[in-house]
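Continuing the series of single-chain predictions for the mutant panel. This is the parent chain; the variants come on the following pages.
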Amino acid sequence: GITIPTRAGVFTTVGRFATSYFPADRDLSWGTLGGLHLSFAKDLFPELYIGLGLGFEFGADWGLWGDLGFMHLPGDIGFMKDFRWGIAMRGLGKGYDPAVSSYSLAWPPTFTPAVAASFSLIDKDPFLLTVSGDLSFPTFQDVRLQLGTEFSAADLVFLDVNFNADLRQLAGWDPARSLPLGFGLSLKIKTKIPTKVEAQDATERGWNQSEMKVTAAAMAMQEGIWAIG
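Parent structure:
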């Protein structure tokens, strides 16, 4: 993926590729699939951002959907530093669903309202600990909660741990995750390619340079399956 900030707003493009071959009756037997997601975000006010996205997935099936939402950045609230929250409507369209299982919802689940928030619990240079939460209602047929923490050192190395809870799985309607956790390790690399900026403050903050982030991640799925990327 690549993110490009401009005067008009921030443009992001993300390409995806995955393979998932299991017996036909398994919930994650989706075969090989690829996809593309385009998004645009813009600040309406210094503390209010809006965004919209368009996603396309293809393989054994196809999906085409849109996302729409906003994010509010009120700043520090008590012990919560850099607090931010937002609401989104995800999956407005058709999700990818090869119909190999009677359990699973399409991916992404269509017509999914969601609310999320994050804040910094520890912010003492060079260390930063961020806490986040995401509550969604996929296709109005499920309730999903994701809680996460990210620990970073010198804005260079990042360690993520996520906890996932799914009502359909807890109720036994869908196969449950073998472990409700996901893990990630990232490395941010500053490039030597400067970009044109007019403000001296931006140059001092390093905003006149691009950066690249490389991530390795793993998450436990249902039926003893692990996803690794």
